[in-house]
Amino acid sequence: MNSFLDFEKPLADLEGKLKELKHLAEDGDVDVSSEIAKLESRSDMLLRETYEDLGAWQKTQVARHADRPHYLDYVAGLIDEFTSLAGDRGFGEDKAILGGLGRFRGRSVMVIGQEKGSNTADRIKHNFGMAQPEGYRKAVRLMKLAEQNNIPVITFVDTAGAHPGVEAEERGQAEAIARSIDVGLSLKVPFISIVIGEGGSGGAIALAAGNVVIMLEHAIYSVITPEGCASILWRSGDKARDAAEAMKLTAQDLLKLGVIDTIVKEPLGGAHRGAEVTIKATGDALAEALDNLIDKDGDTLRLERRQKFLDMGRAGIA
After folding, report:
1. Could you list the pLDDT tens digit for every one of the 318 residues in the chain?
2. Taking the complete model, does pTM exceed 0.85, yes or no?
3. Which one of 60, 106, 243, 315 has the lowest number of neighbouring Cβ atoms within 10 Å?
4. What HEC string does 105-147 produce?
5. Where are the domains of the chain?
6. Domain 60-317 in CATH: superfamily?
């Protein structure tokens, strides 16, 4: 059963009526099949109309939906023979960033991603996908390991941002993120990143400096959360909707700006209404990107990746 977002209230009301009618039909005393058919048609039409033209704040809500497929769902659906690799070899194991070796459609790959968790216990375990410095240092270790063995790197981005605690700063959070970006830009193997939910701040770009950056249709990617932006500009989190609209954080806006390279279409109503379809479509997009990169030599891959991000900066200055 889907949990409905605020802007989906009319749809939730209609689904509630439909559920009541189906319950009556199970009793068998009254023939309500025609009414059920009408309501199902109205529900499908309303869902289509609702998702035809979502605003930035509505997309933010969809991107954060608890039932969206998470990193580990993509690993389970796309990666064969996955072997998890833990620890940064310096401080400890961070559960917000997970990674390991596996096979993607016959090719060996290094897969790294941010895991938010699918229930309360999981979310606490994975710190809601907000990594500590050791998480980014683990990502660096795995990226370098992939390069040493000439294995492509695929990263899945889904975080509101890096962990903001004092202890993270004491252990060098900023340096860990900067080093992760630097290593990502320096790799001499194919590097593909995909934003599957939230791409928040430096916590996201640390894993997203790829040759190809992909986003799901209703994912978001920004330098700060809408709530954080609103608290800075308007001194009020109540302005988060206005901030989201101004920040150009949707996949469609970012494609126009040249920040990302392609968009993966989600099922009608968002990825949470069709996880299996979403994961397959994501796999198709990753396979196409990898096919376009796999025959390039290491120096070309690194040069093109660095040039891609330099061009973004020059476009911003212009």
Report:
1. 468 888 888 888 888 887 777 776 666 665 667 777 887 888 888 889 889 889 999 999 999 999 999 999 999 999 999 999 999 998 999 999 999 999 999 999 999 999 999 899 999 999 999 999 999 999 999 999 999 999 999 999 999 999 999 999 999 999 999 999 999 999 999 999 999 999 998 999 999 999 999 999 999 999 999 999 999 999 888 899 999 999 999 999 999 999 999 999 999 999 999 999 999 999 999 999 999 999 999 999 999 999 999 988 776 555
2. yes
3. 106
4. CCEEEEEEEECCCCCHHHHHHCHHHCCCHHHHHHHHHHHHHHH
5. 6-53, 60-317
6. 2-enoyl-CoA Hydratase; Chain A, domain 1 (3.90.226.10)
Element (H, E) at 192: strand 191-200
Q: Which residue has the tokens 């330098």?
A: 223
Closest CA to 31 of 39, 40, 21, 20: 21
- Helix (H/G/I), strand (E/B), else coil: 257: helix
55 with 249: CB under 8 angstroms? no
- The one-letter amino acid code at 49 reads E
Measured over the CA atoms of residue 93, residue 96, residue 97 and residue 102, the dihedral's sign is positive
Distances (CA, A) of 280 to 13, 35, 74, 100, 214: 31, 35, 9, 20, 14
Q: The tokens 């004491």 sit on which residue? A: 170
Q: Which two tokens stand for residue 63?
A: 């991107």
Please check whether residue 154 is in contact with residue 192, taking contact to mean a CB–CB distance below 8 angstroms: yes
Q: Using an 8 Å Cβ cutoff, are 252 and 240 in contact?
A: no
| Rounded CA separation 225/232 (Å) | 11
Distances (CA, A) of 308 to 66, 106, 120, 184, 208: 33, 28, 39, 13, 12
| Residue the block writes with tokens 């497929």 | 69
